[in-house]
Amino acid sequence: MPQESGAAPAQGTTTQPGGTGGTTPPAGPAGGLGGAWFLPLIAIMFVVMIFLSGRAQRAERKKKAALLAALKKHDRVQTIGGVLGTVTEIKGDEVVIRIDDANNTRMHFAKSAIQQVVRPGVGSKSESSTSDEPELASAIDN
């Protein structure tokens, strides 16, 4: 039964091109509280990620500080640039490293540029260790 052009369709019904009238389902909350949990969940995950990364950085800084505090003369070290040498002098925040024994070439580095101790100095190696491989004491490993 087609509706007259002047009359409005009754509420809850639709007119379709086929001429059949149907009822629409009741309107529910479209995106209401169904997605309300998503934004707080993302925020909580973000806070946890920042907390864990900050904690890892603190541990790394602590290891690096311990490595630099234990640095002494005759330690064989590697810098962050990959330069290998033997510590000859430590002056506050500066370290002098002998690069070439034949020419007695020395370079000055900031203490923070030391990445790892490749081999501890003479007398600091334990007597029980019989391995010929160098001992690595890195600030960022472990």
Describe this structure in words.
There is one protein chain. With 142 residues, this protein is of the alpha+beta class. Helix content is 23%, strand content 27%. The chain contains 1 helix and 8 strands, in the order ββαββββββ. The protein has one helix at 38-69; strands at 13-15, 21-23, 76-79, 84-91, 94-100, 105-110, 114-119, 137-138. A 6-stranded antiparallel β-sheet has the order 6-5-4-3-7-8, covered by helices on one side. A two-stranded antiparallel sheet has the order 1-2. β4 (84-91) and β5 (94-100) form a beta hairpin. The protein is rod-shaped and about 100 Å long. The N and C termini lie far apart (81 Å). Mean pLDDT is 77; it is low at 124-133.
| Secondary-structure class | alpha+beta
Mind telling me the C-alpha Rg?
A: 36 Å
CATH topology of the domain at 37-124 and 132-142: SH3 type barrels
The percent range for helix content is: 10-25%
SSE arrangement, N to C? EEHEEEEEE
Low-confidence stretches: 124-133
Name of the top-level CATH class of the domain at 37-124 and 132-142: Mainly Beta
Instruction: Give the mean pLDDT.
Output: 77
| Spatial separation of the terminal alpha carbons | 81 Å
CATH architecture identity of the domain at 37-124 and 132-142: Roll
Strand runs, count: 8
Strand order of the largest sheet: 6-5-4-3-7-8
What is the overall number of helices?
1
Shape: rod-shaped
Oligomer: single chain
Fraction of residues in β-strands = 25-35%
- Strand count, sense and closure of the main sheet? 6 strands, antiparallel
